[in-house]
Amino acid sequence: MHGTRAVQKMIECLSLPSQVQTVVQSLQSSVVELIQDLNGNHVIQRCLNKLSNDDKQFVYDAVSNNCVEVATHRHGCCVMQRCIDFSSEPQKLQLVSQITANVLVLVQDQYGNYVVQYVLDLPPHPVKSSLIRKFLGHLGHLSTQKFSSNVIEKCLQVSELDVKRAMIAELTESDNLNNLLQDPFGNYVIQTALQASDPNQH
């Protein structure tokens, strides 16, 4: 506990490039382990907050290479959200690309779904649309799961019109619709779909 506070303080006080490199080299092989630790995750968050984009790239590389392992951990999902907050545009794309590639796994996880929802709350961007499109063809199943159903509802609220129409068309196919209306999670998705649809699709 006290050790982590000391390391965080040291990161705050770094001034010379050589000092920064020493810290980076010391931490870069243990990023995922630290992220998943109750105290260690604060050290990584301090790096995100205090280091330059180039100097903290080691964190983005580790998180991207271990996306599912990090995003489905109770501390990891929070750190991944902070990674997005403190990222440069290329770093954000690096992370969101990996989240998108693994989104069907993350969306059904108790922690991973929060990472996906965080991406959905970002300003409009082509990668966000790509992420939502990954759900097409899987909406019937995802809408009946506790965690993923919340994400599908959010997608209906934030997606672009063409994607939203495709989602609603899939959800209201007769087989899907009958199952979803009787499902404790799916019926909320259908209610959201009705609220989000344009009059021509009712």
Explain this structure.
The chain has 202 residues and is mainly alpha-helical. It is built from 16 helices and no strands. The longest helix is centred in the middle third of the chain and has 13 residues, at 89-101. The protein is elongated, with a radius of gyration of 20 Å. The mean pLDDT is 91.
Which keywords apply here?
single chain, 0% strand, 16 helices, 202 residues, mainly alpha
What's the quick description here?
The chain is an all-alpha fold and 202 residues long. Helix content is 71%, strand content 0%. The protein starts with a helix and ends in a 6-residue tail after the last helix.
Could you outline the blueprint of secondary structure elements for this entry?
Blueprint (H helix, E strand, L loop, with lengths): L1 H11 L4 H11 L3 H5 L4 H11 L6 H9 L1 H5 L4 H10 L3 H13 L1 H4 L5 H9 L5 H8 L5 H4 L3 H13 L2 H11 L2 H8 L4 H11 L6
Name the structural class: mainly alpha
Distance between the termini: 57 Å
| Cα gyration radius (Å) | 20 Å
Strand content range: under 5%
Would you identify the regions where 5 or more consecutive residues have pLDDT less than 50?
none
> Judging from the principal axes of the Cα atoms, what is the shape?
elongated
> What's the number of extended β-strand segments?
0
Helix and strand pattern: HHHHHHHHHHHHHHHH
Number of helices, counting only DSSP H or I runs of 4 residues or more: 16
- Summarize the biggest pleated sheet: none
Helix content: over 70%
Mean pLDDT over the full residue set: 91
